[in-house]
Specification:
This protein is an all-alpha fold. It has one domain. The protein contains 14 helices and no strands. Helix 2 crosses helix 5 and helix 2 packs antiparallel against helix 10. The radius of gyration is 19 Å and the shape is globular.
Amino acid sequence: MSKRGWLLFSAMSLIWGIPYLLIKVADEQLTPATVVFLRTGIAALLLVPVAARRDLLRPLLKKWQWMVVYTVVEIAGPWLLLTHAETRLSSSLSGLLIAAVPLIGAIVLVSLGSDGRHDDRLDAKRLLGLLIGLGGVGVLVGVDVSGSDAWAVVEIAVTAVGYAVGPIIIARKLTDLPTLGVVAASLGLTAVGYAPVALTQLPAHVSGRVAWSVAGLALICTALAFIVFFALIAEVGPARATVITYVNPAVALLLGVVLLNEKFTVGIAIGFPLILLGCFFATARNRPVTAAATPADARLSESPLARQPVPEVAEP
């Protein structure tokens, strides 16, 4: 990998590892709906004009129904649930549980069957990976989550399902649409949807710590993140780019322990490696069903949201 590739890879590993910390800080004074509104609204103000100038929004109209579904499944729903869950759970634990997204993606793809381009059958290696990974999740939940936090775990689980299903929608329903247009429009739609509630919940004053956290979420972890990820895929390809999945949770864990004094528990020490090992086996790539790439395949390979055969990266 080139120096530019390593630089972009390192940047993305950090950028999508820090949202859990920033969300935890923002939750101190803002409601979850307000956090999501500010995060998506500020990012949309930056990305929508860029997409509009490049005429990347008009093509979305022909599939507006799937655009709405994707927005709800990938951004509007998960970001609210994750933000609310972090009012109960530590940022490090939340990041580690989200690391199970590839496992869920593998299960969903097996349930849906082949899309004609890839073989998503559940072979012995993938089954072993699923069992190991789910065992790691079980250890995390069983050791580090109390009964009073069970609902927060459910919210994280639904978030992970959304993160797994969203890229599949991109891959199977929206491959002919420009990715930057899809991202910008989804952020804008989410901001508009949350505005009526969030604007009534804005506090009269927030600390600088919370304000900077929201700014970081919107500008760095959302707007800049997508731009950098596009560049990473162009530089190293979609397969290598998805390896950041295995680094992001570690960054979330490190930041939570060092900056927020969150505990490094026995559950984390055992469960996290099991989840990573399970993801590695469960998302092992099978040979393509067809040798020749189609134009749709080419467009799909440029998408930061579409992972084949399994979506492995979720923007937190």
